[in-house]
Amino acid sequence: MHSPTISDVLRARRLQSAHLSPTPLLSYPALDATVGAGIRVLVKHENLQPTGALKVRGGVALLASMTPDERARGVLSYSTGNHAQSLAHAAALFGVPCTLVMPEHPNPLKAEAVRRLGAELVEHGADFDEARRHAEQLAPRRGMRLVSAANEPALIAGVATAFLELFELEPDLDAVLVPVGGGSGAAAACLVAAAVSPRCRVIAVQSSRSPAAHDSWRSGRCVERPNSTTAEGLATGSGFELTQRLLREHLADFRLVDDDAIRQAQWLLMRDARTVAEAAAAAPLAALLAARDGLAGQRVAIMCTGGNAGEAELRACLSAAPVGG
Ligand SMILES: *Cc1c(COP(=O)(O)O)cnc(C)c1O
Asked: Is the pTM above the cut of 0.85?
C-alpha cells in the first residue's frame, strides 16, 4: 500500500472544494488562562463540519476520486460513528450505495445521522474490531468496495487538508495535538507538517484504556491491546500498518490520557470555548494540560475533531464537573 504524498493532499483539496468549506481556527482568552504557562492555544474547529467531524474530509475525497464503475459497486465499511457519517455523507453526495457496520448499541446520534443520510446500517459485534471483521466478510459477498478505517491513502490525504488550512494560517506553530483511533488524523498531520512546517511537533493522543496505536508506535510494530475507552473516536484495539508507517516518519511524541481527564477537558471546552466537543475531540486538551510545563510559552493547536456527543455523554461530563468550576 503506497503512502499518500503532499501532492495527493493538494488533489484531495481540489476534489473537496465544491463540497466542503474551510473550518475556523480560534483562540479563547479563557482557555489560554486555564491552560496557563504562557501557552497560546488555537482550536481547529472540525466539529463545525457538515457531519460534525473531521473525517468527512476523507470520505468526500475518497468517493470523489472513485471511478464510475467503483461508485456503482458501492462502498462498505465499519465504524464507531464518525467514519460512518463521513462515508454516508459522501455516498449521498455522489449517489453511491453505502453499507456501514457499527458495533451494537452505537451512539444514537451517530446511528440516526447515518440512517438519515440514506446509508444501510448493520449493527454487529461488541466493539470496533468485531464490527471490522464482520465488514471484511460482508464486503466481498456483496461485491462492494471495503473501505478500511485507516489503511486507506485517499482517506488520509482527504483528512490532511485540515492541516494544510492550519499551517497556512499558522506557519510558525510550535506543536499540534491530534487524537488517535486508527491514526489517519495524526498520520495526516505528520505528512503535512513534514512538507510545510517541519519544525512543528506533532503530538498524538490516545486513551490509556485503548492504547493500541500508542503501543504500536512505541514498539515499532502493529500490536493489539484491550479497548475499553468510552471515547468512541479513540476506541480501536489494534495498530494500522499505513498510519503507523507515517507516524514513525514524523511523530514527535505520543501521550496517553485517562478517560476522567478527557471528561474534564470536555467540560473546559464547554466552559472556556463555548464548544461542545465529543470525548475523543477533548483528548488533545487533556494531553496539553498534562504536558503544559514542557510547552510553556509556545503556540499550540488542538484539533477539535468532532462534536457528536450524545445526551448520555454530555450528562456524564457535566455531572463530573465541579459545581461552580
Ligand atoms: C475518528 C476520530 C478520531 C480519531 O481519528 P483516527 O483518524 O481514527 O485516528 C478522533 N476524534 C474523533 C471525533 C473521531 O471521530
From this structure: yes
